[in-house]
Specification:
This protein is an alpha+beta fold and 510 residues long. The chain folds into two domains: 305 residues, Zn peptidases (Aminopeptidase, 3-Layer(aba) Sandwich), CATH 3.40.630; 129 residues, Alpha-Beta Plaits. Helix content is 32%, strand content 19%. The chain has 14 helices and 18 strands. The strands form five sheets. A six-stranded mixed β-sheet has the order 1-2-6-3-7-17, with helices on both faces. Strands 11-13-9-14 form a four-stranded antiparallel β-sheet. A three-stranded antiparallel β-sheet has the order 4-5-18. Strand 4 and strand 5 form a beta hairpin. The radius of gyration is 24 Å and the shape is globular. It starts with 26 loop residues before the first helix and ends in a 5-residue tail after the last helix. 47% of the residues are buried. The N terminus is likely disordered. It binds ligand LNQNZP67 and zinc ion (2 copies). The site of one zinc ion (ZN) has 5 residues, from loops. One of its GO terms (biological process) is glutathione catabolic process. GO terms for molecular function: identical protein binding; metal ion binding; metallodipeptidase activity; omega peptidase activity.
């Protein structure tokens, strides 16, 4: 099916009606149209940084129940921004209460924000997804500045705040792209639908069902899904991403005495939950990066020759991982090994213990109840339910071996599937052209070690392709201290988003 394309640009200001393929107008004309759009993006830089500053000021930490009102406040801020920038059919979708495990049984999930810009049946429709929630952050963790206050570092040319790169910067980028089109008087060549959620960092709870419901409603005409919520592999070269690992998040809760106790009075007399927990946690993985839970390795898809070769041309090195981690602690030295362990093998990470003493000083307490948190990054062909059975069985067995009178419950908190796509469809081609136009290079095609739980759901429910278009760099410190977004990545990232929409509009088919 051919689509009628109406492209009204400030420079040529012509309506071109044609079959979408071959290319409608020359490279030169397109570049001059881009010039106008890109100049407008540059001109609006202070407005865009200001929008980001206001957004990151709201501590929208989805994993902290006490901060749920802040997540909702950030949703409300974004609703205002969409309204002010001409988006229509703006809908605040409520998702009901958060499922267990949760402390407050009546805790409401934050809303999903749907909106559209343009509704022309002659144009293709692109759905852009982003998340407005963030990871926890506190200055005591070692931040150079307050995490929820945007710092504009002129010397290093970067923007620092929790959410700068993950994912408030890219999310506001889409709104900014629309503002730039409007103010430059350039027609958007596609219909744009936004789907912004507030629970991504906590497993996208409630979003699967919403997407399934809206697949034939709000999302019915979507031709492609574009997600800007990951990073370049390193710090120099842009990339397009066609794969993600999944994430199954677990907790092991050990319950003992009725209250926290004095270790001088009760130490050596009662069974300590924390002692049990560290022993169970100690059976999960070794220090060489191996998962010690039986049955997981067998589910991992074997490597093919084609995949083996695909690592050769990727621009990445041991130095990149050392620079991004600020250490020389890599478990692997060869590029291929590092990439494979980041992309195509599972990994187990231990994140922390709820209920344990963690402050400064030397508190002599025996915590009464502790929950150890860990996650497993999943890859093809690991089945999430089978994995959970293996994990729970393993933990129960390890606890039983201790012969402790305490109780132990191992459970899944949330899971999100892995995703692997074809990086040679029209959406990826459009993004590759856009990368060439903005950065002057062909992007690397990469997979990502992190997870975006909803990606596979979009692909399956909307029966459309999904493409990941990262804005930030691999050394941005997402989830870490001093999270940043380089100003050039912010500015060029928005140009990339805009150029992608224009190239995708003229691509032959979906
Ligand atoms: N930018 C994507 C991202 O950070 N995703 C999170 C998703 C997640 C899953 N469970 C908790 N968070 C990630 O950790 O990969
Ligand atoms: Zn993210
Ligand atoms: Zn994240």
């Amino acid at each position: 099916m051919y689509k009628l394309l109406s492209l009204k640009f400030g420079v040529c200001n012509k309506i071109i009606v044609s079959k979408a393929y071959p290319l409608l107008y020359t490279h030169t004309r397109k570049m001059s149209s881009f010039d106008k759009l890109f100049s407008k993006i540059d001109e609006l830089k202070p407005t865009f940084i200001n929008r980001l500053a206001k957004a990151v000021e709201i501590p929208a930490v989805s994993s902290d129940e006490s901060l749920r009102p802040m997540v909702v406040k950030k949703a409300e801020f974004l609703l205002e921004q969409l309204e002010a920038n001409g988006f229509t059919d703006i809908q605040r979708k409520e998702l009901g209460t958060q499922p267990p495990p949760v402390n407050d049984e009546n805790l409401q999930l934050p809303p999903v924000i749907l909106s559209r810009y343009g509704n022309d049946p002659a144009k293709k429709t692109v759905l852009v997804y982003g998340h407005y929630d963030v990871q926890p952050a506190s200055i005591e963790d070692g931040w150079e500045s307050e995490p929820f206050k945007l710092v504009i570092n002129e010397e290093k040319q970067l923007l620092r705040a929790r959410g700068a790169t993950d994912d408030t910067g890219p999310l506001t980028g889409w709104i900014n792209v629309i503002q730039a089109h409007r103010e430059a008087g350039i027609e958007l060549p596609v219909n744009l639908i936004t789907c912004f959620e507030g629970m991504e960092e906590s497993g996208s709870l409630g979003l699967d069902a919403l997407i399934a419901r809206e697949a034939t409603q709000y999302f019915k005409d979507v031709d492609a899904v574009c997600i800007s919520d990951n990073y370049w592999l390193g710090a120099k070269k842009p990339c397009l991403t066609y794969g993600l690992r999944g994430c199954n998040y677990y907790q092991i809760t050990i319950n003992g005495p009725a209250a926290d106790l004095h270790s001088g009075i009760f130490g050596g007399v009662i069974a300590e939950p924390m002692i049990d927990l560290v022993q169970v946690m100690g059976t999960l993985a070794d220090s060489k990066g191996n998962i010690l839970i039986k049955g997981i390795e067998e589910m991992v898809a074997p490597i093919t020759d084609k995949e083996s070769k695909s690592y050769d041309n990727i621009d990445f090195s041991l130095e990149d991982i050392e620079a991004a981690s600020g250490s020389k602690t890599s478990l692997y030295q060869k590029k291929e090994d590092i990439l494979m362990h980041r992309w195509r093998y599972p990994s187990l990470s231990i994140h922390g213990v709820e209920g344990a003493f963690s402050g400064q000083g030397a508190k002599t307490v025996i915590p009464a109840k502790v929950s150890g948190k860990f996650s497993i990054r999943t890859v093809p062909d690991i089945d999430s339910d089978k994995l959970t059975n293996l994990v729970v069985e393993h933990c129960n067995k390890a606890f039983k071996n201790l012969g402790s009178p305490n109780t132990c419950v191992a459970e899944l908190i949330h899971d999100g599937n892995y995703w692997l796509s074809d990086p040679y469809n029209s959406s990826f081609s459009a993004a590759a052209k856009a990368t060439k136009a903005v950065y002057g290079v062909e992007p690397d095609l990469t997979r990502e070690g992190g997870s975006i739980p909803i990606t596979l759901t979009f692909q399956d429910e909307l029966k459309t392709s999904v493409m990941l278009l990262p804005m930030g760099r691999g050394d941005d410190g997402a989830h870490s201290i001093n999270e940043k977004l380089d100003i050039s990545n912010f500015m060029k990232g928005m140009k990339l988003m805009a150029a992608y929409l224009h190239y995708y509009a003229e691509s032959p088919e979906k």
